[in-house]
Amino acid sequence: MDFLKQMILDKGYIINNNILKVDSFLNHQVDFKLMNEIGLEFYNYFKDKNITKIFTIEASGIAPAIMTSYKFEVPMVILKKQTSSILNDDLYQTEVKSFTKNTTYNLTLSKKYISPNDNILIIDDFLANGEAAKGAIKLIEDAGASVAGIGIVIEKSFQPGRKILEDLGYDIYSLARIKSLENNKIEFVD
Ligand code: 5GP
Predict the structure, then answer these.
(1) How confident is the model at residue 86 (pLDDT cuts 50, 70, 90)?
(2) 12 pocket-lining for ligand 1 (C-beta < 6 Å)
(3) Which terminus of the chain is less hemmed in, N or C, by CB atoms within 10 Å?
(4) What is the number of the ligand 1 atom nearest to the C-alpha of 134?
(5) How far is CA 78 from the centre of its chain?
(6) Which strand (E) or helix (H) includes residue 155?
(7) Quick check: 7 pLDDT over 90?
């Protein structure tokens, strides 16, 4: 997606060889035109998959996910990050290791917002080690629902997330794939 790649080159900020900041258009301030294009792009790729809901992980996945849910005309569900585990029959929970914070959180979903008939598209801002996506998959499958695919805005292809999720059999569509952040330079996969 050229519009996204150009925005990453113009406005992305390399923190170190492993982390890219995109606060000015995706994670803090949000570019509505870009989000609209992202929603359309995910819709075009996954439109024949009978998607019933869009799931995302708070907070940075919400902007691309809401535009995707608008294109599909299906609800978006936000998986919450709780600091402690809650024993409650109304919730699904699983522990996830945070890539950027080096801590863990409990990804949480109310049983009210999922049913075994759901066929769910997961949307997130970044793919690194695949931990957040694996957590979302676990909650969906614990509920007996299906994962239709995973849509990622920015994939860091030099980290193992894509391979791990592909080996598990999931369809991953990433709008920008970064090959390297080394030498303070952003390089994309061709
Ligand atoms: P994973 O779970 O795949 O290891 O990491 C993905 C999650 O970590 C995303 O939900 C995202 O919020 C965060 N993340 C991973 N890498 C980056 C990065 O380079 N920049 C930013 N801003 N967030 C990242």
Answers:
(1) confident
(2) no
(3) C
(4) 2
(5) 11
(6) strand 146-156
(7) yes
